[in-house]
Structures are given as C-alpha cells and as structure tokens.
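User: Need the bound-state model for adenosine-5'-triphosphate:
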Amino acid sequence: MVRLDNLTVSYRQHPALHHVSGQFEPGSLTAVVGPNGSGKSTLLKAAMGLLPPSGGQVRVAVPRDRIAYLPQLAEIDRGFPIQVRDCVLLGCWPRRGAWGGVDAAQLAQADAALLAVGLDGFADRPLGSLSSGQLQRVLFARMLVQDAQLILLDEPFTAMDSKTTAALLALVRQWHAEGRTVVAVLHDDAQVRQHFPQTLLLAREKVAWGPTPQVMAEPFLRQARAMAEAWDETAEVCAIDSLRAAA
Ligand SMILES: Nc1ncnc2c1ncn2[C@@H]1O[C@H](COP(=O)(O)OP(=O)(O)OP(=O)(O)O)[C@@H](O)[C@H]1O
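Assistant: Bound-state model below.
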C-alpha cells in the first residue's frame, strides 16, 4: 500500500528521516513510534506528498483522494469560520468536486458520521467553539464520510480523555476490520501493544519494523533512546550520502 525505498527527507538539508525502507501492507494497522524528533510526522507528511524526498522514494498505491490525513491537532486552524456539518462534508469533496453541490444522501451521511462519533446535535455549531476532544471527533467524522483506503493519523489521541480515546480507537478498529490501511503516530506504549498489530520504531532511521511484540522489545526501545541522545541537530548530510556524493 505504501512502499518506502531508501527514503530520506530533509528540512533545509538537515535530514529528519534517513534511508528508511519497508512497506505498510494493504489492510495493515501500524503504529509509528519513536522519541520526540525521530521523524514520525515527517514520514506521514512524505507519504501524503506534502514533503518531497531528498533521497529515495515513497510509493503509494492509492490515488490521493483515497488517502485521509489527520495532522497533529496543533497544526489545525481552529479559527476557520465553518460549521461542524460543513467541516464533515469536506470529506465528500473528492467525490463531489470543487463546485459540486451536496445531496441529501451526503447530508444524511454527515449526520450519521456525527452520530457515530458521539456529536449528535453539534452539526450547526461553529468549529471554533469546540473543545479539543470534540474537534478531534469531528475530524474523525470527516474521515468516516471520506471512505479512504489509506488513513494516516498523527497523534490522534494526544490530549484526549479516556472516553474520547476509546470512541476513536473503536473507529480505528472498525477501519482495520473493513480492510483499510491505517498508520498512526503514537506515544502511548500500552496503547500500541494493546491495539496495533504492527509497529515501526523510528529514530530518524528505522530501528525495527514488524509485529508489535517483537518491535516493542526493550533492546530496540533502548537502541532508539540511545540514538536520540546521540543526534547532532546541526548535521547536514549523513556519512552514506557524503560517500555517495563523492563516488
Ligand atoms: N518545518 C520544519 N522545519 C525544520 N525542521 C523541522 C520541521 N519539521 C520538523 N523538523 C525537524 O525534523 C525532525 C523530525 O521532526 P518530526 O516532527 O518528524 O518528529 P516526530 O518524531 O514527529 O516528533 P514528535 O514526537 O516530537 O512529534 C526534528 O528534529 C524537527 O525539529
């Protein structure tokens, strides 16, 4: 579904993700974990096509309009003047096009999605009036109507209370049961072990990628922490890149 071939992504020549290879299989449910600054968000943005690779490539086997991407809550403009139902209806946009109207079926779908995320009665509220947990539920409702094949979630449960987390995790399990491919950046190890069969552990490089019980083993986690402590934030190009350039 998503194949990474020796993928390197850099910000102003500082590599944030380094020579990562592997693939997210169709229908898999994968947690992406690693210390702060280990390249997790960068990986999702590269998969979404928001950041170009500086080396290698990322190949996604579904059209762009069948990918749902949920950025970190902090990156979302909450001041945008839009009502909750209209925000959910944005999920239909790939099907109805820029100028297409909304039909009764799509309106019903949006209201059903709001009901499914526990926001019945919120349809006419301005988005800016919602709490963080309510906003996250709206964004999940939007993904429900989008009917995506590939779902990329960046820290979807951070700052959510246990009730909201349980409700949103149930949707993730539903998507997995429906055969969709889900990739979620997470920081809660217990949650990863309990709900995510596959894990990619990053420390700018791939530390381990495979079944969660194997990847979340202490030696790999220790290795990732040690790599994070050794990062040189001013490094410009890695030794492999320098050698290749000189060859
Ligand atoms: N827009 C940017 N410009 C410059 N550097 C950036 C930018 N975004 C991220 N970085 C750097 O790239 C590295 C990886 O960042 P990224 O956000 O991918 O990490 P992360 O694993 O998602 O971190 P966290 O767990 O803290 O969210 C970090 O050193 C970060 O400072």
